[in-house]
Design goal:
single chain; 266 residues; alpha+beta; four-stranded antiparallel beta sheet; 39% helix
Length: 266
């Protein structure tokens, strides 16, 4: 058995240039990336620029394997871009498909089995490719599996339930000449129930600028509230997240101004 493993490592001579500490560092970075993908997926966000972390990790690994120090700098730059770029993650319009991640995991697994069987005559590039495919596939599966499940949208019954105000505002109101613009400033999708001007006990459905009804409000998305210049506030009922939860109530009040200048109120 020892002889077999010795032959395997001999065939992977370039890989042995990777020290144990360096391999642990690569593993920690990969685990951190997968954890972040899973955390963002729970909020309905999927990787965009964040995918560059995978080739970044690959270049870090190949730097000592191929004995090309420049690859380390390029890989580190890709990791920094993938981590701090404003568009690293973006809200998904629908649940990501698990099809291509499964293909990536399957190909990575096949290559891994081939590496073990072909030892000691195996290329380090093949080993790295297998690891990249496994990491890409696992990240895609996390984004798909942990994406919030569609939930039953809140309705008129929310109006008569006890609603809470969130500790941090999920919504902001921008007064315009013809009404108000409601924006989701949180990083989660809000399931809309209804709204009412503060001056009346009403129940209206939220709509976008074109008049189309809105059931949900994604992060950064806006809704239009038709109000006259004498209105002094709005009330919006909604539920946050994909699991049944206590209804939330957004309140915004202001001093009525006809044709008010552009301003944002929390």
């Amino acid at each position: 058995m020892a002889a077999e493993w010795g032959g395997f490592l001999t065939g992977l001579t370039p890989i042995t240039r990777v020290s144990g500490a360096f391999a642990v560092m690569i593993g920690v970075l990969a685990a951190y990336w997968l954890l972040r993908v899973g955390r963002e997926a729970r909020l309905g966000w999927v990787p965009r620029v964040a995918w560059w972390s995978v080739p970044g990790l690959a270049l870090l690994l190949y730097a000592p394997v191929l004995d090309v120090p420049a690859l380390f700098g390029i890989g580190a730059a890709l990791l920094l871009i993938a981590e701090f770029w404003p568009g690293a993650f973006a809200p998904a319009r629908q649940k990501p498909s698990p099809a291509w991640p499964l293909v990536g995991v399957a190909l990575g697994a096949v290559l891994t089995v081939g590496v073990v069987r072909a030892a000691p005559d195996v290329s380090s590039v093949v080993v790295g490719t297998a690891l990249i495919l496994l990491l890409l596939g696992t990240g895609g599966l996390l984004a798909s599996v942990l994406y919030p499940v569609a939930t039953r949208l809140p309705g008129f019954g929310v109006r008569w339930q006890t609603a809470q105000s969130p500790e941090l505002p999920d919504l902001t109101v921008t007064l315009t000449e013809h009404g108000a613009q409601l924006r989701n400033v949180s990083r989660r999708t809000l399931n809309l129930a209804g709204w009412s001007p503060a001056s009346v006990n009403g129940w209206l459905r939220l709509r976008d600028e074109t008049g189309q009804p809105l059931n949900t409000l994604r992060a950064g998305q806006t809704a239009f509230l038709p109000l006259d210049g004498q209105e002094s506030g709005v009330r919006v009922w909604y539920v946050a997240g994909s699991t049944p939860a206590t209804p939330l109530l957004f309140r915004a009040d202001w001093t009525p101004r006809v044709h008010a200048n552009y301003r944002v109120l929390n």
